[in-house]
Specification:
By secondary structure, this protein is α+β, with helices and mostly antiparallel strands. It contains ten helices and 19 strands.
């Protein structure tokens, strides 16, 4: 529960303009569903991020951090406590030589564009991943043969104890959709990437080619959280879902994409409950047909408050 004392402390941390009560999470997730956050804050500096963390710790209130909400399913009941939204204000990107420094709220597209303008290659794979650097670092985001961990030198994080630490690539222990930071509950503040010099036009051409390939194969015209399930060992989630006869399958306004079965989309008017029930149904049917339990790549927030 956000009491008046915590509200005042958060206002001091980010300013009244950076504090919103009852903020609709549907406006901050790519699924375009989700109830209100009890309190949302929008920091602009690392100092503000740390001040928000300290205020929540002092009052014993939970704090969740997010970027563009591209891998989140927030319950219709919304979220208790404080949600820190890093996308927007905390999204600076700078380039020095081969090094790109990006704050956690910077979008992958923003970083890829900055690298392209500077004649640096290596982040093209992420140019169409609809998330932020913070999320990419936590989940080792990847596509088209590239992964965040392949180009990252280090990640600056806030530990659960409130210490700012520099995590090296070795310490991050990146693997498929996994990192040490995720295991330990670290909050990513920024990252340093080391890229390779290349002709800006060649980099641009590769980015445009990947954009075309995405548009041809993925349901970008509908709200979704990208690939809904992690890739099972030795096969693809979309193939298993299609083989289970679930192409186009619906629960309310949520649907298994007819264009790519690995995506659950908001086909119109979906609720978070629709999406959650569809994910559960897909898991059950694929387990029955193929003996494989698909693991959601999407993170689910707030469902404990609905008794689920």
């Amino acid at each position: 529960m956000v009491c008046e004392g915590l509200r005042a402390a958060l206002a001091r941390a980010v300013g009244e303009e950076g504090l919103r009560l009852g903020e609709p999470m549907a406006a901050h997730t790519t699924f375009a569903v989700g109830g209100p956050a009890e309190c949302a804050v929008f920091p602009r500096t690392e100092g503000q991020v740390r001040a928000v963390w300290e205020a929540c710790r002092s009052f014993g209130v939970s704090l969740r951090a997010m970027g563009l909400g591209s891998d989140l399913l927030v319950s219709d009941a919304g979220l208790r406590g404080v949600v820190m939204i890093l996308a927007g204000g905390f999204s600076g990107v700078s380039v020095e030589g081969r090094t790109v420094k990006a704050q956690a709220g910077a979008s992958n597209a923003q970083v890829a564009e900055a690298a392209q303008r500077a004649g640096l290659a290596g982040y093209e794979f992420a140019s169409g991943i609809p998330g932020t650097v913070g999320g990419a670092a936590i989940m080792n985001a990847g596509a088209y043969g590239g992964e965040f961990g392949q180009v990252a030198r280090s990640v600056r994080c806030l530990t659960p104890e409130g210490r700012a630490v520099e995590v090296t690539a070795k310490e991050a222990a990146w693997s498929y959709r996994h990192s040490m930071m995720d295991d330990r509950g670290y909050l990513v503040l920024s990252a340093q990437l080391v890229l390779e010099p290349d002709d800006p036009e060649a980099v641009r051409a590769r980015m445009e080619d990947l954009a075309r390939r995405r548009a041809e194969k993925q349901p970008l015209e509908l709200p979704s959280a990208g690939s809904t399930f992690k890739r099972p060992e030795g096969c693809f989630a979309g193939k298993l879902i299609e083989e289970a006869g679930l192409r186009g399958f619906r629960v309310g306004g949520a649907q298994v994409s007819e264009k790519h079965c690995g995506f659950v989309v908001n086909a119109g008017g979906a609720t978070a409950k629709d999406v959650r029930r569809l994910i559960d149904e897909v898991q059950e049917r694929v387990l029955a047909s193929a003996g494989v339990l698909l693991e959601p790549e999407v993170r689910m927030w707030g469902f404990e408050d609905e008794g689920e």
